[in-house]
Amino acid sequence: LRSRLTFDYERAKAFQLLVRATDAGNASATVTVRVLVTGEDEYDPIFLSPSFNFEVPEGALKGQSIGRVLATDEDEGADGVVLYSLAKPSPYFAINQTTGTIYLRVDSQPQAGAGRAKREPREMSLEVQARSPLPASRSASARVTIDVTHTSFGLAPD
């Protein structure tokens, strides 16, 4: 069997047809053939926003969620599953690969000696990548800016 058309997994995942074979003596036999269409990674994941902004609240603890990124993919099947990762590891933040939730890897210690005085705003940036679990899948990235003003993250000890 050969196809005259290109199949599109997003439109039809399978076809069924009846095939008849007839010999020179006019004897025949039939069989039902089921053709399964496989998917192809045609679409890039798309983040709901090109950038996200979150804040680490004062007193936040290890494991606490500080925000969630979200991307969609028009592919179906395994090619349409979106997994998240950080482009570079962070000592302070991690991401749940299936939900896109960014959480703390450490307790957010307040700045030493800062008290309740006005603090200088501070931010950290992460790059989050979205891709399917398949090898050589298409990917996308988004920038995440996190306000760490109320933590000692990134500050050298006094």
Structure description:
- 0% of the residues lie in helices and 38% in strands.
- By secondary structure, it is mostly beta strands.
- The chain folds into 2 domains: 7-39, no CATH class; 46-112 and 119-152, Sandwich (Immunoglobulin-like).
- Strand 8 and strand 9 form a beta hairpin.
Structural class by secondary-structure content: mainly beta
Give the CATH class of the largest domain: Mainly Beta
**Overall form:** rod-shaped
Multimerization status: single chain
Pfam families: Cadherin
GO cellular component, one term: catenin complex
GO molecular function, one term: cadherin binding
Protein name: PCD16 protein
Task: Pick out its properties.
4-stranded mixed sheet; mainly beta; 11 strands; 3-stranded antiparallel sheet; Immunoglobulin-like; PCD16 protein; Cadherin-like_sf; 158 residues; rod-shaped; 2 domains; calcium
Brief overview:
With 158 residues, the protein is an all-beta fold. The chain has two domains: 7-39, no CATH class; 46-112 and 119-152, Immunoglobulin-like (Sandwich), CATH 2.60.40.
Reconstruct the topology from this structure:
Layout (H helix, E strand, L loop, with lengths): L13 E9 L5 E9 L9 E2 L3 E5 L9 E4 L2 E2 L10 E4 L6 E3 L5 E4 L18 E9 L7 E9 L11
